[in-house]
Amino acid sequence: MTHTIGVDIGGSSVEAAVRDFAGEIVGRHTTRLTMDGGPQVTRAAVSALRELGVHDFGAVGIGVPGQVNQGDGAVSLALNLGIGRDPFDLVGSIEAEVHRPVFIENDVRVAALGAWESFSRAGRGVESVAVVSIGTGISAGVVVNGVVLRGARGLAGEIGHVVVAENGPVCGCGQRGCLEAVAAGPAIGRVWPRGDRIEAASALFDAVSDGDAAAETVARRITAHLTTALIWMAATHDPEVIVLAGGVPSVGDVFLRMMREQISQRAATSELAARRLSPEQVVLADPSDPPGPRGAALLAAQSILQERDDLPATTKANNQ
Ligand SMILES: [Zn+2]
To answer: What pLDDT, in 10s, does the model give residues 133-184?
Structure first.
């Protein structure tokens, strides 16, 4: 069994990693650039993959922030990549360049797969894990026993567009007061306008650390909305761990502390609430083992095994 490569494509960077059969990440490469349409995303992914300098790999896994058609691997509505309603054949275009099978999945689901594997490699194996990603948008991915939950229409985990504030700000999706419209990076930029979206989150939580009362009030409101989202995840999927990933949680400990305080407060008066979600259940993604590229590489490894299992026995024997 050979290595697999995972490529996690975001709106402003591509992270690639090589994973060996035992689950060790043996190489990484990150490229920062702005994505602008399918052909450019293809070039960025292929170039990040080539920068790894690995020739012995069996397949490639890709994570993308958009909708993935599991039938043909086409990507649509990946707005941060410049891919709109018209589906783009990212799998086909990357396969044509690298001449290996390419497998694709939504980025947050891929991150959940990576987080699930990280826990088991750290000797802290969990049956179920949820990743809640808070950056330009908000969404969640759930993995149970190494299997990604997609849902009947591929929309499982799209929590960013649940309305949390009646008559709140208009969201890009057309509704008012979506979770994303009040608590994602751009929303933080609107209520704490300092720099771009991630700088705004980091400026806000830095100001909280410095004891700024106005920042504290704003940050409380945002973390309260996000805590509600974690409670949805706990109530619907009861995961052993919830991992916070994306640009906003990357501001670090002060963000995690505020989230955990909110969870404790809501659990203080209810035994049920306390059992449903505890502060210790919520952690930040490990920056030394990013879940996105690891999960994408694991997706490729799982998909190869799956395809082998699906082959007729005689063909399998010939392939061994
Ligand atoms: Zn929305």
So the answer is: 999 889 999 999 989 999 888 889 999 999 999 999 999 889 999 999 999 9
Burial category of 30 from C-beta neighbours within 10 Å (exposed 0-12, middle 13-18, buried 19 and up): middle
Q: Is the pTM of this model over 0.85?
A: yes
CA of 196 to the centre of ligand 1 (A): 20
Expressed in angstroms and rounded, the spacing between residue 34 Cα and the centre of ligand 1 is 23
- Whats the size of the chain, residue-wise? 320
What lies within 8 Å, CB to CB, of 44 at 6+ separation is 9, 14, 31, 33, 35
The share of the chain scoring above pLDDT 70, in percent, equals: 95
DSSP 54-90: ---EEEEEEEESSEE-TTT--EE-BGGGTB-SS-B-H
CA–centroid distance, residue 237 to ligand 1 (Å): 22
**165 CA → ligand 1 middle, Å:** 11
pLDDT per position as a tens digit, 189-239: 999 977 555 688 999 999 999 999 999 999 999 999 999 999 999 999 999
Structure tokens at 182: 């009040």
Sequence-ordered list of residues with C-beta below 8 angstroms from that of 271, at least 6 positions apart, any chain: none
| Residue among 167, 166, 108, 168 at smallest CA distance from 136 | 108
Output the pLDDT for position 35: 84
Q: If you measure from the C-alpha of residue 309 to the centroid of ligand 1, how many angstroms do you get, rounded to a whole number? A: 40
Q: How far is the CA of 118 from the centre of ligand 1 (A)?
A: 31
CA 49–ligand 1 middle distance (angstroms): 33
Q: Give distance in angstroms: CA of 182 to centre of ligand 1.
A: 10
